[in-house]
Amino acid sequence: MLLHLSTWPETEKFLERSKTIVIPIGSNEQHGPTGLLGTDWLCPEIIAHETQKTADILVGPTFNIGMAQHHLAFPGTISLRPSTFIAAIGDWARSLAGHGFERIFFLNGHGGNVATIEAAFSELYAEASYTGRRSTYALKLKNWWDLKGVMQLANQQFPTGHGSHATPSEIAITQWAYPDAIKAANYAPQIAPTGPIREALDFRARYADGRMGSDPGLATPEKGGALVAMACKALVEEVEAFGREPAPGPAQ
Ligand code: NI
What's the gap in Å between 160 CA and the centre of ligand 1? Predict the structure, then answer.
C-alpha cells in the first residue's frame, strides 16, 4: 500500500492491522556520467514499491533530498545541510507518530545520509529521555545494500569495479526500473579512483566524472532485477521482524 495513493480512512484502517510504515530515503545527487541524479532515492523507492505489490506493508512518500554537500560541484545535486536534514526527519517522524505509527522504518539509499539520520534518531529519542517518558515510537535505519543477501549478490555480479559511488549495482537497479533512461558513456579510466570525501570542490578535483571506485559499465537491467528481487524478499522479513519487537511505550 502506497500512502500517497491512499486516503486518510484507508490509512486509519491500515493502522488497525499494523503500526509500521516504511519510508524510502535517499539523495538527489550526481552519479557519474551515466548514473541518474535520482539514483539514491530511486533505489530504495523501487525496492519498497515493488515489495508492497505482494506484501501488506505501507510505504510512505520518498524522502528524496539528503545530505550531499560533497556533490554540490556537479549540476543537478540538491543537498540539505545536516542540521536541516535532522529537522526535516524529525518533523516527518513526529507527524507519523502523531497518527499512531509506532515503528518508522527508513530504507536508505545514500551512504552519506547515515550519520545524519542516526543523529536525527538520537534527537527524537532525546525528546523522550529528557522528559522522563517512554517514546511512543521506534525508528529503524536500513541501507538497501545491507538487506540480507544483497551485497553478497552484488559481489558475485561485480567482483571488480563495484566501488562506492555510482556503483554498477545501484545503476543496474535504476536500469531495471527505468529502461528508457539508460545512458552510455566512455569511462576513463574504466574503474574510477578512490579516496576521501571532503567538500564539493575537493570532490570534483579528485573524482573528475563523479564516480568513486566504480565501473558503471558493468550494470545491466537483468542484474538490477535480480538485486531488487533479493532486496524485496529481505525487506519483508526486516519489516515483519521490526513489527514483532515489543511495543514502544504508551502515550502519556
Ligand atoms: Ni548512490
Answer: 17
3 CA → ligand 1 middle, Å: 25
Counts of helices then strands in the chain (DSSP H, E): 8, 3
Helix (H, G, I), strand (E, B) or coil at 234: helix
Structural domain tally of the chain? Answer: 1
Residue span of the structural domain in which 71 resides:
3-153+228-244
pTM: 0.97
By the 8 A CB rule, do 58 and 68 touch? no
User: Which grid coordinates are listed for 24?
Assistant: 524510502
Report how far ligand 1's centroid is from the alpha carbon of 31 (Å).
6
**43 CA → ligand 1 middle, Å:** 9
What spacing in Å lies between the alpha carbon of 85 and ligand 1's midpoint? 18
* 53 inside domain: yes
CA–centroid distance, 39 to ligand 1, in Å, is 6
Task: Give me the residues of the chain with pLDDT under 70, please.
Answer: 251-252
CA–centroid distance, 164 to ligand 1, in Å, is 8
Residue 102 belongs to some domain of the structure: yes
Distance between CA atoms of 43 and 24, rounded to whole angstroms? 9
- For ligand 1, the distance from its centroid to the CA atom of residue 78, given in whole angstroms, is 14
Tell me whether residue 32 is in a domain. Answer: yes
Cβ atoms of 164 and 40 within 8 Å: the answer is no
Residue 102 sits in a domain whose CATH number is: 3.40.50.10310
For 220, how many CA atoms within 13 A lie in the half-sphere containing its CB?
6
Distance 216 CA to ligand 1 centre (A): 11
